[in-house]
Amino acid sequence: MNTRLDVAGIGVGPFNLSVAALLAPLSELKTAFFERRPAFNWHPGMMLAGTRLQTSFLKDLVTSADPTSRYSFLAYLVAQGRFYRFINAEFPRIERREFADYLRWVAEQLPNLRFGSEIREVRHNGECFVLQFADQTVEAEQLVVATGNVPHVPDWGAPHLGEQALHASQYMTTPFSAKGKRVVVVGGGQSGAEIVLDLMAGNRGEAASITLLSRRPTLEPLDESPFTNEFFTPEYVGAFHQLPQERKAAIVERQKLASDGISPDTLRQLTQAIYVADFLSPDNSRPSLLPFREVCAMRRDGKTLRLTMHNGFDGQDEQMDADLVIFATGYRSVLPSCLAPLSERLRRDRHGRLALREDFSAEWDGPADQRLFFQNAGRLSHGIADPQLSLAAWRSAVIVNSLLGRRHYNDSDAATPLNWTAPQAAPASTIVAA
Question: Which of 4, 25, 255, 424 gives 20 to 30 Å between its CA and that of 315?
Fold first, then answer.
């Protein structure tokens, strides 16, 4: 027996959890969100003690769209009986562990989530989308896809994944010991810095050596200054989306440190830990920080992994031996395998990226009133904020409003103080578009 839905969600991470939370009070749409995992679990492999969000707790699943929602972070604090304790603690940023618990709390309340439900394939039969499971078939008018990105490992490292090489996303979920080992962390962003701090603390045993390799010229800070944060606003996303496609990649690259730098708190912790290791506890292991290093190869030599890299500072080639390599090399966007039957029907740009409309629906050759919305697939269509939590609630409001065909949730904000484009009616004495 088939089930017919108005909206089917594929994947239940924070982004589709946000959409589900905004859809939950709306009885006019029949919805369900499907997730292959047995329960909600947000980045368990990087849930290190003491690590903090890089964004405000007000940028939760719902607040910017519906501040009265029962699924807000503040509602979570009240429900847990620690609202005043939280305020009095004056956290500059909240711990990831608490935000993860908030996400779990929301997931436990929503009636439209289906965990342990793996979608084998999705087709379109000419009338609707058809989701095929092992034991059932579900039909849907609209799809919202948010399956998350997958860990990225460089081509030279992928063949060695196993006991001696792992991605940072598995750091807390893979049992391993660093005791007496030469550990190399590849990647100079937030994850790499956090892992180095954890290794220095001896939480995986005392390593023989700890080395951080980064292509960047130094350990660069996250730019969270006020005007940079204007990139994470609805107005900026709208302006960016209107740009010619050929301009977007260069702009996003220039903004890299707005989302991919190391938080100032983490940099401070790291430099203080190195100071203590150098001068106050000289027996403790201190890391070697090697910037300007581009790893180009890794091969096995007995039980040793030998990395070959180019030093972009002095132009020399170098080699380094390791017993354990951890890739803090980020994530990449892929189309979920269940959508393979629809892949050729989705329009793409010349680089193979999905062509997304302003409301995050994909351009495709199917019926215009039956759409596929994609979350976390528009970094080069909607801007640098797309993979971040910062605008999750706003994007969900845009998607839900589009599903409803009306503006039910707030999806706009006051104009930013920055003029991204020439003002529509600018006097000739101020600015004129060329």
Answer: 255
Phi, psi (deg, nearest 5) at residue 305: -100, 125
Question: 1 pLDDT exceeds 80?
Answer: no
Q: Tell me the pLDDT tens digit for each residue of 287-304.
A: 999 999 999 999 999 999
Range of the domain at 302: 152-222+261-327
High-pLDDT (> 70) share of the chain, %: 97
Rounded to an integer, what distance in angstroms lies between the CA atom of residue 12 and that of residue 355?
A: 23
Any idea which residue has 């009616």 for tokens? 425
Residues 325-369 pLDDT 10s: 999 999 999 999 999 999 999 999 888 899 999 999 999 999 999
What is the DSSP-derived secondary structure letter of residue 414? P
Radius of gyration of the chain (CA): 23
Judge whether 360 and 317 are in contact, CB under 8 Å.
no
Say how far residue 185 (Cα) sits from the centre of its chain.
Answer: 20
Report the distance separating Cα 347 and Cα 331, nearest Å.
23
Closest CA to 360 of 230, 234, 228: 234
Q: Where are the beta strands (DSSP E) in 253-369?
A: 288-290, 293-301, 304-311, 317-322, 324-327, 331-332
Asked if residue 348 and residue 380 are part of one domain, the reply reads yes
Q: How far is CA 150 from the centre of its chain?
A: 10
For 272, the 3-state DSSP assignment is: helix
Which structure tokens are listed for 83? Answer: 């609202």
- 115 and 181 in a common domain: no
pLDDT at 317 over 60: yes
Distance from C-alpha of 284 to C-alpha of 207, rounded to nearest angstrom: 10
Residue 47 lies in a domain: yes
* pLDDT bucket at 425, cuts 50 / 70 / 90: low
Q: Are residues 369 and 291 both part of a single domain?
A: no
Question: Domain check: are 99 and 143 in the same one?
Answer: yes
**What does the alpha-carbon distance between residue 403 and residue 408 come to, in Å, rounded to a whole number?**
10
Structure confidence by residue, pLDDT tens digits, 386-397: 999 999 999 999
DSSP β-bridge partners for residue 262:
221
> Is the Cβ–Cβ distance between 346 and 363 less than 8 Å?
yes
